[in-house]
Fold each of these.
Amino acid sequence: MAELIETMPGANTEPPVLLLQGTGGTNQEMLAFGRRLAPQSPLITIAGRQGEGQQRQYFSQTAVGPVDDQQVQMESLWLGQTVQQVCQSRHWDATRLITIGYSNGAAMAAYGLQSGHLPGKTAVLFRPLWLSVPQPQHRTDYQAWLSAGEHDPLVTVATVQRVAAACQKIGATTTLEMTGGTHQLTPQEVLAARTWLMVNAL
């Protein structure tokens, strides 16, 4: 599974950043995106194990049919263990990990936050889908920034609000950014996310 993992060095004094892509994304795209949001941080991107090539996902997501809850839990555990191993091998501080996800990846990031599988205290969730977490953990030291597009045909504003509410329920501090966009990210929300990170985590 080493081919699923790519890293980019940064200052070891800065918090490491885990980047989780949406369906159709690539590790290289996520590393470039991560560098825009966290210019000095070490970067880690881990592609999903479901699907192949540019259709990789962290959990199988289709227009019809329910999500496999057991698959989601297994992949979340794997992600948490993998990022811990990467940080340990490079002497990066996993307790300061920032997780940034988009769409399918944002959903998995939110799941990892609530389940306690992912270390760290900060998440940026662009257009997260909803996933039910069977045993959410209390994370009062966690903060999450989320964004929703008013004209997003794939992830509704109500869905993102539901994810934000679930994060709040476990004690996390949340910030919800509303945009007039669709499922594609807007320059304004990327700038808003970077500004929030600079104030709260970097």
Amino acid sequence: MFGVAHSLTSSPAAVFKATTDVITEFSQDGVVYLELRSTPRQVPSTMTKTQYIQTIIDAILECRQTLNILVKLLVSIDRRQGQKEAEDILDLVVKVNQMYPDIVVGLDLSGDPSQGDFMEFSSVLAEARRYGLKMSIHCAE
């Protein structure tokens, strides 16, 4: 499923459209609070991880103008990608949280629970807490 979604969202324009479409569908279903979760993705020569997250934020901001739904973003850390990647994502989240504290509210530790050791991420999660970020941890999917 994620492979198909990734192939359809390989540019900022596609990420923007997918995000606004998802938010619009939830709003049409009567949802008034939505937490989106997404792992920053880089597409070579098309989009950086920062551009990817900024595009999602831009879509949330646009939807705020016309829809009656409150949308927040939890940026995901895929436990399969290891601690260095988690540290890089935390750095990105801290920066965007400072610019958009009402949108980017925290981290989501996700991915295949049989991959990676939870303790490998404990220092990153502790650092996130020091920044006041909220957390969601998937541990037995």
Amino acid sequence: DIFSDMALINEIWAPQIGIVPIGDRFTMGARTASIACERFFKFKSVIPCHYGTFPIIDQSADAFVAAASGQNVVVPKVGASFDV
């Protein structure tokens, strides 16, 4: 779910946009994902994914948005386009 080698991804490829799973079942949860983004990456924008699709997983990105304060979190609306 979270591991320190994630820092190597940032060191080698320096991604500018992060798409992070936040559903908390089968993936990272909101808090863990926000810690990974803060400690291991320097994203210009972060897009949460893998939430709100099945009853067993978290249904909104609100907890991630709150936990990732200080980061540019982009929560896309279903069916809408967006710029990052």
